[in-house]
């Protein structure tokens, strides 16, 4: 689903709800199949799939304000889309070091042709969905990612590189509860590694079922970080490449999410935002901004541990607010989806 800000550009206020007739009929998954402009049956399949996805994995929005609830549902579907694509992309990329020797992937699609529920990562006016930020992150040259078999309990972490020469570095693992407190979990805290050209290397293999005995899986997260030294194609200059990923031992709809106490500041000197988590782990931190402008941030849709902050620059595509949009930027996380 596109954002509330996009819907407001083309849909009357009385239709700004998840299952309104206008929103419903703009869902062409599945297509109407002809000139029937009121094929609610086909539209219902796509709406149901999005609803089921949110209910299966995330806190279900139930806000008292109808407009805020619609916005929360739109964002929840974007999180699912980004989560799904991220899982698939990192899975395919890992295959560069497996027998299938997977050497690339493409995803559908880039941008919208109208305001409607679609696969696009960029909305009709150019506003970025969560997917576009997530795709930029998970297609980084060097990534670390978790791979979890819920049936067997097997959890692995792999480092993947698409560079044309080998990279060396360190993978770091921190087990936390949702308040950010360190957990005593018996896995290495650091692993040295080398990844060959366009390849993958496993840096962690453990059984979560056995590993987390005595722990409540709804209150466990694993932060993985990687720092690697390598060279970009056609360059002799070595550079440091970093990436971070998170694993949560239970779906976010059953996780013991805590208020991360997000603090947001803006600096006129650097023309950047700084968002900090102060009281807990923040999942899917999202900087939102009002209508009237189209802006892309340097990063968005990320995680933060308590006490950590991130400075975020931006680029302005269009602005009818005379710069006023800056004062209306807000920071939220998955925690906000639990609030009324």
TrEMBL record:
<keyword id="KW-0378">Hydrolase</keyword>
<feature type="domain" description="Mannosidase Ig/CBM-like">
    <location>
        <begin position="155"/>
        <end position="231"/>
    </location>
</feature>
<dbReference type="InterPro" id="IPR041625">
    <property type="entry name" value="Beta-mannosidase_Ig"/>
</dbReference>
<protein>
    <recommendedName>
        <fullName>Beta-mannosidase A</fullName>
        <ecNumber>3.2.1.25</ecNumber>
    </recommendedName>
</protein>
<dbReference type="Pfam" id="PF17786">
    <property type="entry name" value="Mannosidase_ig"/>
</dbReference>
<comment type="pathway">
    <text>Glycan metabolism; N-glycan degradation.</text>
</comment>
<comment type="subunit">
    <text>Homodimer.</text>
</comment>
<keyword id="KW-0326">Glycosidase</keyword>
<dbReference type="GO" id="GO:0004567">
    <property type="term" value="F:beta-mannosidase activity"/>
</dbReference>
<dbReference type="Pfam" id="PF17753">
    <property type="entry name" value="Ig_mannosidase"/>
</dbReference>
<comment type="similarity">
    <text>Belongs to the glycosyl hydrolase 2 family. Beta-mannosidase A subfamily.</text>
</comment>
<dbReference type="InterPro" id="IPR036156">
    <property type="entry name" value="Beta-gal/glucu_dom_sf"/>
</dbReference>
<keyword id="KW-0325">Glycoprotein</keyword>
<feature type="domain" description="Beta-mannosidase Ig-fold">
    <location>
        <begin position="257"/>
        <end position="336"/>
    </location>
</feature>
<dbReference type="InterPro" id="IPR013783">
    <property type="entry name" value="Ig-like_fold"/>
</dbReference>
<dbReference type="InterPro" id="IPR050887">
    <property type="entry name" value="Beta-mannosidase_GH2"/>
</dbReference>
<dbReference type="GO" id="GO:0005576">
    <property type="term" value="C:extracellular region"/>
</dbReference>
<keyword id="KW-0964">Secreted</keyword>
<keyword id="KW-0732">Signal</keyword>
<dbReference type="InterPro" id="IPR017853">
    <property type="entry name" value="GH"/>
</dbReference>
<dbReference type="GO" id="GO:0006516">
    <property type="term" value="P:glycoprotein catabolic process"/>
</dbReference>
<dbReference type="InterPro" id="IPR041447">
    <property type="entry name" value="Mannosidase_ig"/>
</dbReference>
């Amino acid at each position: 689903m596109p954002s509330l800000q996009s819907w407001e550009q083309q849909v009357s206020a009385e239709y700004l709800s998840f299952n309104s007739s206008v929103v419903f009929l703009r869902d062409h998954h599945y297509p109407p199949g002809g000139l029937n402009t009121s094929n609610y049956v086909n539209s219902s399949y796509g709406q149901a799939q999005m609803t089921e996805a949110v209910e299966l994995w995330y806190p279900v929005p139930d806000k008292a304000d109808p407009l805020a609830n619609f916005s929360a549902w739109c964002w929840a579907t974007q999180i699912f889309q980004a989560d799904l694509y991220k899982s698939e992309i990192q899975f395919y990329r890992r295959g560069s070091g497996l027998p299938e020797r997977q050497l690339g992937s493409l995803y559908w699609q880039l941008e919208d042709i109208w305001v409607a529920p679609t696969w696009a990562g960029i909305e009709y006016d150019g506003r970025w969905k969560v997917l576009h930020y997530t795709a930029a992150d998970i297609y980084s040259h060097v990534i670390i990612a978790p791979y979890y078999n819920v049936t067997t309990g097997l959890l692995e972490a792999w480092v993947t590189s698409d560079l044309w020469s080998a990279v060396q570095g360190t993978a770091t693992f921190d087990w936390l509860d949702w308040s950010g407190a360190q957990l005593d979990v018996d896995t290495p805290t650091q692993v040295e590694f080398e990844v060959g050209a366009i390849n993958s290397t496993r840096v962690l293999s453990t059984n979560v079922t056995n590993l987390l005995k005595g722990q409540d899986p709804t209150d466990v997260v694993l932060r993985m970080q990687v720092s690697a030294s390598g060279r970009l194609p056609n360059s002799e200059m070595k550079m440091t490449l970093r990436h971070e990923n998170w694993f949560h031992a239970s779906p976010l709809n059953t996780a013991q999410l805590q208020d991360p106490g997000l603090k947001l500041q803006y600096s006129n000197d650097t023309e950047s935002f700084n968002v900090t988590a102060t009281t807990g782990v923040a999942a899917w931190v999202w900087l939102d901004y009002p209508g009237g402008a189209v802006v892309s941030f340097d990063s968005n849709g990320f995680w933060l541990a308590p006490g950590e902050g991130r400075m975020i620059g931006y680029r302005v595509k269009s602005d009818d607010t005379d710069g006023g949009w800056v004062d209306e930027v807000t920071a939220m996380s998955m925690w906000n989806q639990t609030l009324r």
